[in-house]
Design goal:
The two termini are about 40 Å apart. Helices cover about 45% and strands about 20% of the residues. The chain is built from 17 helices and 16 strands. The protein is elongated. The strands form 4 sheets. Strands 5-4-3-16-6 form a 5-stranded mixed beta sheet. The chain has a 5-stranded mixed beta sheet with strand order 14-13-12-11-15. α6 crosses α7 and α6 packs across α8. It is α+β, with helices and mostly antiparallel strands and about 550 residues long.
């Protein structure tokens, strides 16, 4: 069995392409290394062989790129040429150490299976055009390969049959992975994803997601405090990068002051940018005027519920004490049983690897709702200060915001300070969260750390490439907080609430269940089958080279 965790760790590496300079450097090293290993009596000859074969691959790929609409820039062509060159070097090593020196003349044909698959999944045309183009590429390389092959006799027939055998293997492989699992065409989904990854054009993958998406009735909410507009929605900011809901947070923060992560899971990801625009453009902020009451917190074993009451709405922030992750959207309906117009947010600011929300978590949260609903606080005058700035790092996706709230009793005898720190990242490590809270305590401010759960920098799956904000971001956060706390508070002349319902197409639970099922049923076997057919292509090429001229 393949170690799934190990495989997932390398998902992002699979689609990472080195810069041209690095590809060229690796190519030179491989040429030198292969020339030493293979050129026992002619190292210079082999150095020339690999240099010109590599050059032939580069030129051929440049020629065929527009024909098949390959999603390749020059950087990717250099990298693919490097992989093909290394394949030739490996084949040479095998046959030379079998004392079949003349067989290096058929080396590129041993790569036909691999080449056809790569070009198919990275191109925009039908398989038959990729097949034809791949065979043409192999024959364009053949004269150069033959020129540097110990003056071996032509083995064009063997070369042709081996290339066509690789084509047959690739056709069989396509048939194997061309499955419909849970209503999802796995091969086309995979191809569209790879094209998106290569081009960053979300349309490739979003077109597939729209086929499988389901309509969901949700809501967008807005709390206005002075000139600050705090938004939230019952849709989820995912799955990855700029795909669908991956742009949700950015779209909200372009138009509004803050975006708080709601109780929602990845099944609530909008399927496309069009659906994101529908959600964001539905925001209404100034429907109902509000009066502020003093906030409070209710603590449980796993969560702390921070409550910011108003007379016609309540801002609720669920803060994981030791771990936090996505909560089911059904909690929004549960909150309605205890509060008028609840704006339920999950702080998403206590990262713990492998944490999954349990039934015990849900039961505790409902108990916190019930306890909080019985608490009454006095009305207070609300003053505020808001500070935001652009910030980007490996984990921060573009924004840091801080809302300082000062509640002053009407008697003027007491005042309390709260702060909501928003980090635009997909989570926050506990160490950073504790540092921020201690920083606030030292200055008499109760700071609640939140993240947007933004997946704009997330890798292949929502959990792969997961990079929560951590201690390496502390210096940026600390400097920002010092600036924010130095700002003068002003009276919130306007406090308003707005809610609007919106129907948007989301990915749905069935999609994720089907993809997971596909990985279970064919994922591991597909990897083994790929390795087997690649090896068979090499073995068959050797046998044909030995028996057919």
């Amino acid at each position: 069995m393949i170690d799934r965790e190990l495989l997932e760790r390398f998902y992002t590496k699979i689609f990472s392409i080195p810069k041209k300079r690095l590809s060229v450097a690796i190519g030179i090293v491989s040429i030198v290394f292969a020339s030493i290993l293979n050129g026992m009596a002619g190292k210079a000859f082999f150095a020339q062989r690999y240099f010109f074969i590599g050059l032939a691959f580069i030129i051929s790929l440049f020629i065929l790129r527009p024909v098949i609409g390959a999603a390749y820039n020059s950087r990717r062509i250099f990298f693919l040429s490097l992989i093909l060159l290394i394949g030739v070097e490996i084949f040479d090593f095998i046959v030379i150490h079998l004392s079949a020196f003349d067989l290096i003349v058929v080396a590129p044909a041993s790569l036909s299976f691999f080449l056809i698959l790569v070009l198919y999944f990275t191109s925009r045309v039908h398989f038959k055009y990729v097949l034809t183009s791949s065979i043409i590429l192999l024959f364009l390389v053949y004269p150069v390969n033959h020129l540097y092959s110990f003056q071996a006799p032509h083995r064009l027939t063997a070369y042709m049959i081996a290339s066509l055998a690789g084509a047959l293997f690739s056709f069989a492989y396509m048939r194997y992975i061309d499955r419909n699992i849970g209503g999802i065409a796995i091969k086309e989904l995979l191809r569209s994803f790879i094209l998106f990854w290569l081009t960053s054009d979300a349309n490739y993958f979003e077109k597939e997601l729209e086929k499988y998406g389901v309509e969901k009735k949700g809501s967008v909410k807005c709390l206005t405090i002075g000139d600050v507009k705090i938004t939230s929605s019952t849709f989820h900011p995912g799955p990855i990068r700029n795909i669908g809901g991956g742009s949700l947070v950015g779209a909200f923060l372009e138009r509004y002051s803050m975006y708080l992560h709601s109780a929602s899971k990845h099944e609530d990801n909008p399927v496309s940018g069009r659906e994101v625009e529908k959600i964001v453009s539905s925001v209404v902020c100034d429907e109902v005027g509000l009066r502020a009451f003093k906030p409070f917190s209710v603590e449980g074993k796993r969560y702390t519920l921070h409550v910011f009451p108003f007379d016609h709405a309540t801002l609720l922030i669920l803060d994981g004490r030791d771990a936090a992750d996505d909560l089911p959207s059904q909690l929004n309906d549960v909150a309605k049983k205890y509060f008028i117009n609840p704006i339920l947010c999950e702080a998403h600011s206590c990262y713990a690897e492998g944490f999954e929300v349990s039934a015990e978590d849900i039961l505790e949260i409902e108990e916190l709702f019930e306890r909080a609903s019985d608490i009454e606080t006095e009305q207070a005058e609300l003053k505020y200060a808001f500070h935001t700035k652009k910030a980007e790092s490996q984990s921060l996706c573009g924004h840091i915001s801080f809302l300082l709230l000062r509640y002053v009793s009407y008697s003027g005898n007491t005042s309390e300070k709260y702060g909501i720190l928003l980090l635009d990242s997909n989570n926050v490590e506990r160490e950073l969260k504790r540092k921020v809270e201690e920083f606030g305590d030292e200055r008499g401010v109760k700071i609640i750390v939140t993240s947007t759960d933004n997946h704009a920098k997330t890798g292949v799956s929502p959990k792969i490439g997961y990079k929560p904000a951590g201690l390496e971001d502390w210096s940026v956060v600390q400097g920002f907080l010092e600036e924010a706390l130095a700002k003068e508070v002003k009276k919130a002349e306007k406090i308003c609430y707005g809610i609007n319902e919106v129907v948007a197409k989301v990915m749905g639970r069935r999609f994720f269940e089907s993809v997971e099922r596909a990985f279970r049923e064919i994922g591991e076997t597909a990897i083994y089958l790929f390795l087997l057919l690649s090896s068979l292509n090499i073995v068959l090429t050797v046998l044909l080279g030995l028996t057919i001229i």
